[in-house]
Design brief:
Blueprint (H helix, E strand, L loop, with lengths): L1 H22 L19 H5 L25 E11 L3 E11 L3 E12 L2 E4 L5 E5 L1 E15 L2 E14 L2 E15 L7 E13 L14 E10 L6 E12 L5 E10 L3 E10 L2 E12 L2 E8 L8 E10 L11
Antiparallel strand pairs: 1-2, 1-16, 2-3, 3-6, 4-5, 6-7, 7-8, 8-9, 9-10, 10-11, 11-12, 12-13, 13-14, 14-15, 15-16
Length: about 325
């Protein structure tokens, strides 16, 4: 078993090196389309400063598709993000896992209230609408107890007034967990490449999707009292059309019922502070996050409701 884990560890390191060499140079200042794909939809991820590539639980739909194998049953999640400018982003996801295999479905959409249209002479010409739609399917596999792999295929649709564009992309993810006794707690590593796919455009001019490479680590110490839990995470993210960003976050949970979260997310010219709260009751989870990047869109409020139930896929043991 030790030799198998070592072999997968070597494979993971090789994949990280190749993907970094391929993706990181693409983070040049080039225009992109479907930029709603850059926006965090899950409050927990947002509150952690989006440092989520190695945070294994309940973040598969956005952060890393390999995390789907950690769901431990089935998980339904609905999230809502609102800006003061009447812009909303909603996401609905379902994931189920046997521990070795995982299947998931995600639907997300960004939409606005009617916007005014004006001519070049500044004459009002009526209203129009803008919206984006994402439909994605995920498969994840745990080929070894410490290694997780995942892939997401997705369709992206964007519409402005009567014009529309469609694109296709994949997300790739990998995660590795070190033995708990090695570092005095649970240390996991994660890497995700998102939005690797086709160009999109409304005319003859096409633009790339916001290709993103994000990797990092997450650590939970084992020396805290049983009623307390601490998670710290740190990632580095490179995105096409943006500067590289350092992402850090922390979560402090009490009695597996109340979680306080804070983080810091790098952006052009500085860092954004993030705050969040999580509540758990039996099979229900309620999460909230607040972010104020101080830019044109202003502050955002993110809320999500999650419901856990028994697994749909058979467990590896029952399949034998």
């Amino acid at each position: 078993m030790g030799g198998r884990v070592t072999r997968w560890w070597v494979v993971l390191l090789g994949a990280v090196s190749m993907l970094a060499a391929l993706v990181l140079p693409l983070a040049a200042a080039t225009p992109t389309c479907a930029d709603f794909l850059k926006i965090s939809t899950l409050p927990r991820v947002a509150a952690l400063g989006e440092a989520s590539a190695a945070v294994t639980d309940a973040t598969w739909a956005e952060a890393n598709p390999s995390h789907l194998t950690y769901v431990g049953g089935s998980l339904f999640t609905f999230s809502h993000t609102a800006w003061f400018q009447d812009i909303s982003l909603d996401m609905l996801s379902f994931g189920t896992s046997s521990g070795r295999h995982g299947l998931g479905l995600t639907i997300a959409g960004l939409h606005t209230d009617p916007l005014a249209r004006y001519s070049s002479e500044d004459q009002y010409e009526g209203d129009f609408r803008y919206f984006d739609l994402l439909v994605a399917g995920t498969y994840a596999l745990a080929p070894a107890s410490a290694l997780r792999l995942g892939i997401t295929g997705k369709t992206v649709y964007e519409k402005i007034d009567w014009d529309s564009a469609t694109g296709f992309a994949v997300d790739l993810g990998a995660g590795y967990s070190l033995p708990a006794g090695l570092v005095g707690g649970d240390l996991s590593l994660g890497l995700a490449v998102r939005n690797l796919g086709s160009k999109m455009g409304y005319t003859d001019e096409k633009y790339d999707l916001p290709l993103t490479c994000q990797g990092g680590l997450a650590y939970r110490p084992s020396w805290l009292p049983q009623a307390l839990d601490l998670l710290v995470a740190a990632d580095y993210r490179a995105t096409r059309g943006a500067v590289g960003a350092l992402l850090v976050g922390a979560e402090f949970e009490v009695m597996k019922a109340v979680a306080l979260r804070l983080g810091s997310r790098g952006r052009d010219g500085g860092q954004d502070a993030t705050l969040g709260l999580g509540l758990k009751y039996k099979n229900l989870t309620l999460d909230y996050a607040y972010m104020d990047p101080g830019q044109s869109l202003g502050a955002t409020h993110r809320m999500s409701l999650g419901f856990r139930t028994s697994r749909i896929l058979p467990s590896p043991e029952s399949a034998r």
